[in-house]
Amino acid sequence: MGVHPARILRQRSIPPPSGLRRRVGEEDPGWWGAGSWPDEKNLSGWRAEWRSRGMWCREMETPETKDDNPRVCDVMSVMVYVTVFILLLLFAVFMSFFTVISATVFLSTLTPKFYVALTGTSSLISGLILIFEWWYFRKYGTSFIEQVSLNHLSPWIGGGENNAAESTTTNSNNNNNQQSVPECKVWRNPLNLFRGSEYQRLTWSTKKEPLTYYDMNLSAQDHQTFFTCEADAGKPEYEIMQTAWRERNPEVRIKSARSALDLNPECASAYILLAEEECTSIVEVEKKLKIALKHAENNYRKSQLTQHQSSAMEALHRRDTNVFIYIKRRLAMCARKLGKMKEAIKMFRELTKEVPPIMNVLNLHENLLEALLKVEAYADAQAVLAKYDDIALPKSATICYTAALLKARAVADKFSPDIASKRGLTAAEMAAVEAIHRAVEFNPHVPKYLLEMKPLILPPEHILKRGDSEAIAYAFFHLQHWKRVEGALNLLHCTWEGTFRIIPYPLEKGHLFYPYPTCTECADRELLPSFHEVSVYPKKELPFFIVFTAGLCSFTALLALLTHQYPEPMGALAKTLLSWWYVPIQYVLEKLEAVLPSNLLHHLSRI
């Protein structure tokens, strides 16, 4: 039994490389656009649908021809497609012939007012589309027309089930290839402010809310995780506090905390809430937290003796440990704000030696680094940095930019860009520049705040690493340290933009870190208040459809204005353009009349 020639050609065909085949699929597997390698499933989507609907194709396949000639229905399908296409083409040609003739007669009778109305309406519609597209782009960072085209039209055009199966396969491959890339994760700000004594003062003075509901909701979840446990069941004061942490209204939260203290004067979590939200000065906060620390220490010692009796008692001891450490950390931050630097550094050092799970969330080493930089203890800061700036530990803007500051401190006072361009960089200057490039690659938003190119706002209670929220939180506390080192900001100003030449495509490939995540903009918009302009990296270009609608709106508006001012010349111009457009069609019709018999053209025209 012979082998069909079509099978030989299929066996000898070379499929496209898998990497190129998935190039567009990584962004949207359901889209087959320009620059991508189409898969066989995409090309055969409509053909498979035709075959599934046409039962006559299966009837033509006999047992003898099923193996040797398995594509008979494909050949028939192609023949049907070609026939239908030719008929539709002839029909379109003849319809256009009569349409052009009738349109010429119709347009010759129109007045200039019609042209003005037509172009004006077109300009108005395109202008409305432009406004909507611009608003959607400013809010969501993408084009609405592109989103609809990619998510709804392309999968429908590309084929139903086959395209969906390909999307599933491509998604699984991408997940396997990118499983090591970290996702965007929101972290608690180690240097977050006090709501009553700091955030609320901004609200009173400017009538602006510095915290978003999303940010406060995350804080409420953290407080429930840290300060509640299953052993609180049956204790009315702790049940009240469980409800208070979830309450949205601050006045109701404060009232609930006072009710809990009336039931149990030793409820440390109620003192925490009052210190965070009711006190209007740092001195009051410190007094309230010292009372809370006394009760928290007593509760901690009591639960330490009974933690091994049951799982509930173990959870109770874990909760008391979290409360105790949290209060000590906030007291150290109060000492830092009140200028008691030795006391604050001592407390931060003691806390960094603790090992409970809460320590992984608080990131107390960043508080310690900031306090050491405040007293200009650069050697101690370098020692702390050497412990935490490890390849196995998660990075942050505080770690990267503090390392850059310490290296820049050694050369910044004598650095001159003119001299460096002539003689080249020394080893110390090269190390400082590389440290700045490393820091900028990790978070490219920080330099604009350090160089005061963007206004600072109060930092949120939660930050997104490598995002604008982390940059604000870092610059809010560390800008003073950069200003104190002579020449550090000048060195940063001269070198930070060179990072972008090292990583021309930051979303695809990084230099020292993972590619820059694409989810930072959306998360930062949720974390930061609406009056702040979120920094976006890399800078997005205007979508094609915004430029297109802007050009269309301007062009149609210009046509409307010209037609209104000069009706007769514009009418003559419209007729001239119409005649030019009719020339190639007339040429094609003349060729068809020379090839096809006249009676066939006559019958087709009647149809």
TrEMBL record:
Native species: Scylla paramamosain (Mud crab)
Name under which the protein is recorded: Protein ST7 homolog
Any one GO CC term of the record: membrane
Main location: membrane
Gene3D superfamilies xref list: Tetratricopeptide repeat domain
Superkingdom per UniProt: Eukaryota
Family statement drawn from the similarity comment of this UniProt entry: Belongs to the ST7 family.
Subcellular location: Membrane
Key words, A-Z: Membrane, Transmembrane, Transmembrane helix
One matching Pfam family: ST7
Membrane topology: Multi-pass membrane protein
